[in-house]
Amino acid sequence: MVKELLENMVNGGEVKTEKEVKMMAPLTLAYMGDAVFEAFIRNYLILTGNVSVKELHKNAIRYVKAKAQAEIIHELEKELTQEEWGVVKKGRNQKSASPPKNADLIDYKYATGFETLLGYLFYTGKTDRLMEIMKKSVDIINSN
Description:
Homodimer. One of its GO terms (biological process) is rRNA processing. Involved in correct processing of both the 5' and 3' ends of 23S rRNA precursor. Processes 30S rRNA precursor transcript even in absence of ribonuclease 3 (Rnc); Rnc processes 30S rRNA into smaller rRNA precursors. It comes from Clostridium aceticum. Its cofactor is Mg(2+). There is one protein chain. The protein is mostly helical. It has one domain: Orthogonal Bundle (Ribonuclease iii, N-terminal Endonuclease Domain, Chain A). Helix content is 76%, strand content 0%. The protein has eight helices and no strands. Helix 3 (26-48) packs across helix 4 (53-64). The radius of gyration is 15 Å and the shape is globular. The two termini are 27 Å apart.
């Protein structure tokens, strides 16, 4: 269901070539990656049980906070292609406009790299790989 929604979102616009996506600002990719991951996590939590919106939000934070995303990307590093890890590093190395409020700077940078990868996969139309990484992300956080 989520995969089809992602494909419709991408196809509703236009799947970009890898060259076009690589020309996009890493923080722009991270911006979309953050939204895609947040929607994925919200859907996952809604489907796992009938709880209040307050509980859903509290549970979502466990997955989307910078520390969790940094942990995810470190766990996934060995499974990523060189190209994917290059995208993570581009996102990680970007200077953000404002320092993180509730996160360690290193975690924040790796979280930005993770979100950049998700945005990259989204815009290149690699929804199978995007879903695989997001599902593994849930497994990583759930195992801790």
